[in-house]
Write a sequence for this structure.
């Protein structure tokens, strides 16, 4: 059992406790620890082991990375856990013996993992999903024949694991997760899930810079998607168009980007903003992707991103990862438009919304390094930010 360093962790816990409007006793009760232990941690008289840190974070409804003494510790913990994620799928067809919870409990566990993914809570994912995947693979083996419900849960849990692998640059591992998601889809017999996996598969094309092939794969998935006859089907098709618009932009195909974005906008206006099959979709998500498409198309189109940001900001109800992504993309547009101070402010908002997602985003490091060279923002705070995200 490791112990987080004393420095700063107590102050962080006290801060997040005050934000949650909890007394020390209330937080201790929710975290099932003694209030005296919490008091000592908050005043820096003792450290916090992984179990206590996890319990406190869960009680506060935040990722443990927000409580660690420094972000390097959080990233190191996540990277050190990647082999465990790899091991969880190495023998997916020959799982170890062990318990399997009832299906309703597995659904709850997978839903929690999905919520962590949408909230960029990567420390929680690496701490729980390897064991969850092992249990789900046992559930697959225990079923007399392929159970579509279990297959859907497997695909969803794999998607949460994939989010960590992809965000932290383990692209080969990410590709393996996606192939297993496609394997699970074959047993699920669920066209909506097929669309969700096709959406996720685009990561492999982004990682390989194979944008034209990625666009083709998405257009095939759109053709195969169920017609938009109800809300889930409409959202599934709309999300694919939304994704296709971005990768078309990366491919430099302006016409395709605009066509897919227009279709995503049309479908988004027909459904409420919500999470559909693990993907956020609706009018707000489409607006965020307008910014992403503009940045993908390059400097001649970034004015569209600035126009969106002038009159609109992502509502707090959207997943943290999606909101932080908006500000990361906006920062790049502002930087290209000669607005370095605005770009730095956007990066700081992204960090506040989803620190771990922001810190390990390649564009954040690149843009912070550019801003540092320009020396147009406050020197000390910019230097601190650049060091925080390892900008060179």
């Amino acid at each position: 059992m490791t112990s987080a360093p004393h420095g700063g962790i107590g102050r962080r816990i006290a801060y997040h406790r005050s934000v949650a409007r909890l007394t020390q006793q209330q937080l201790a009760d929710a975290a099932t620890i003694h209030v005296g232990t919490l008091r000592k941690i908050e005043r820096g008289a003792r450290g916090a082991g992984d179990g206590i840190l996890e319990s406190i974070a869960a009680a506060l409804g935040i990722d443990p990375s927000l409580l660690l003494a420094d972000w390097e510790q959080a990233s190191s913990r996540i990277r050190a856990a990647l082999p465990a994620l790899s091991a969880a799928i190495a023998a997916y067809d020959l799982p170890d013996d062990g318990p399997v919870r009832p299906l309703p409990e597995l659904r709850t566990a997978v839903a929690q993992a999905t919520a962590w993914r949408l909230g960029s809570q990567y420390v929680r994912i690496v701490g729980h999903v390897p064991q969850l995947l092992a249990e789900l693979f046992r559930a697959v083996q225990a079923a007399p024949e392929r159970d579509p419900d279990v297959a859907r849960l497997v695909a969803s849990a794999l998607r949460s694991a994939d989010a960590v692998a992809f965000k932290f640059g383990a692209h080969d591992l990410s590709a393996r997760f996606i192939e297993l998601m496609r394997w699970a889809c074959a047993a699920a017999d669920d066209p909506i899930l097929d669309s969700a996996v096709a959406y996720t598969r685009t990561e492999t094309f982004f990682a390989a810079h194979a944008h034209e092939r990625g666009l083709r794969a998405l257009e095939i998935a759109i053709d195969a998607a169920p017609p938009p006859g109800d809300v889930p089907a409409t959202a599934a098709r709309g999300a694919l168009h939304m994704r296709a618009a971005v990768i078309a932009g990366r491919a430099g195909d302006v016409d395709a980007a605009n066509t897919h974005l227009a279709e995503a906008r049309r479908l988004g206006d027909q459904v409420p903003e919500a999470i559909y099959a693990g993907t956020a979709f609706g009018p707000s998500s489409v607006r965020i992707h307008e910014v992403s498409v503009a940045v993908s198309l390059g400097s001649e189109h970034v004015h569209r991103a600035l126009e969106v940001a002038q009159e609109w900001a992502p509502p707090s109800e959207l997943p943290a990862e999606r909101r932080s992504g908006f500000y990361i993309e906006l920062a790049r547009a502002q930087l290209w438009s000669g607005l370095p101070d605005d770009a730095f402010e956007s990066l700081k908002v992204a960090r506040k919304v989803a620190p771990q997602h922001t810190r390990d985003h390649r564009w954040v490091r690149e843009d912070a390094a550019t801003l540092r060279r320009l020396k147009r923002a406050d020197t000390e705070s910019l230097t601190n930010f650049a060091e925080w995200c390892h900008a060179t």
Confidence is low (pLDDT under 50) at residues 1-6. The first strand starts at residue 3 and ends at 4.
